[in-house]
Amino acid sequence: MTFAIIAALRNQTPGYPTGWGGPEYTSWQDEQLSWKTTCYLGDWSFLMDLEVRGPDALKHFREHTVNSYEVFEIGRAKHVVYCNDDGNVIVEGVLMRMAEDVFRVQSGPAVFSDFLLSKGGYNVTSRKLNTFQLQVSGPAALAVCEAAAGEPLTDIKFMRFREIRIAGREVYALRQGMAGEIGFELHGDEADKQAVQDALLAAGAPHGIRRLGRRTAMINHLEAAFPTGLWHYTPDMFSANCDGFFEFTMNRWSDCFTTPPSLRGSFEGASINDYMMSPFDLGWGKSVKFDHDFTGRVALEREVAEGRSKQRVTLEFDSRDVVDIYASLFRGGEPYDFMDIPHPQRWVVWADQVLESGRPVGISSTPGYSLYFRRVLAIAFLNPEAATLGSQVEVVWGTPGTPQRTIRATVHPAPYKKDNRRADLAAEPALVRA
Description:
Elements: H1 2-11, H2 28-37, E1 40-43, E2 49-53, H3 57-64, E3 77-83, E4 89-99, E5 102-106, H4 108-117, E6 125-128, E7 131-137, H5 141-149, E8 161-166, E9 169-176, E10 183-189, H6 193-204, E11 210-211, H7 219-223, H8 245-252, E12 262-264, H9 297-306, E13 311-317, H10 319-327, E14 348-350, E15 352-356, E16 359-364, E17 368-370, E18 375-382, E19 392-397, E20 405-412, H11 430-433
Parallel strand pairs: 1-11, 12-14
Antiparallel strand pairs: 1-7, 2-5, 2-6, 3-4, 4-5, 7-10, 8-9, 9-10, 13-18, 13-20, 15-16, 15-19, 16-18, 17-18, 19-20
Helix pairs in contact: 5-6
């Protein structure tokens, strides 16, 4: 059965993901430099949004996520992670506490929470929200958002939010930073999206704001080491915990999905479970708190006790080997699999075999080209003994059954780029306070 699942994913023709507007607005090079030099406006309004309210709302999230809720005041957000009984991640995303018994949850957790709540057992109501989610991130993000709001925003701490007004519309400003830079995610009613977007672009024009297209959008996740399900790893969609989940999603949330992603890369697992990751594998161990009972707790406690988690790192591909991949297009014989840059344009989950001295030591995920660093990078999940910074490994490049070669790679930290998300806004240089 598991081989059938892997074969089906490999044979799936990759489609194009929804969201992010056009493929490019200026150029992918120009857009990719924006979060280091100015800032970008990214449109994540395609992500699902669910409101859960009622006396059992917090109980629901406590019982199904790895996170602690001992401290979770109104106006705070959490990166919540749902696991299956084996401790592998099903979905993850942002949860916002709007009031004592009112929460909003986005992305995969919106759909999975809706699925769980449809089974009953909780004194809550849930409803799909028709909202926009716009991100402004980069050194000039604070200046742009303050100009659009007409008020200071330095009081908003990391992973906190409050209500502001932009173009006269009610907006919730959540401070986060998916690009590893100062950033705000702005949430509001879908009917107000155009007015808010226009106001942000006008406020950002003096600062050189760029719109972020889908051709380069995921490079910020790569540089900042934020693994994304159905892109950098395979989330659980197959266990007993997910029985009926796919059918529920297609019936109730079909407007948010196109075709399923396809599986690519040289790694050949014996089971679909070999492609899945725990929160510890993905670098989210600090979010796992054993102060409450939740789905997957026993498995995760055992993983900690046995010390068998992988370590998240960034692999820096040897540029000479990458160039040879492209050179194969211009010489005789069958060329190697094409390495699309800045990252794959279609919806794929990548898993390449990583070797150290010829023995398997982990998985390398979807590669991407960083113009700023002039390197092809990949988030990888390695056995701890192979994850020493500066050590050399090899990535097997090529789909099984096609010409393959190894790419030399050096182990670097994850994130690869300096993390500036939590910077003290009041202490930032003139660019962000202008």
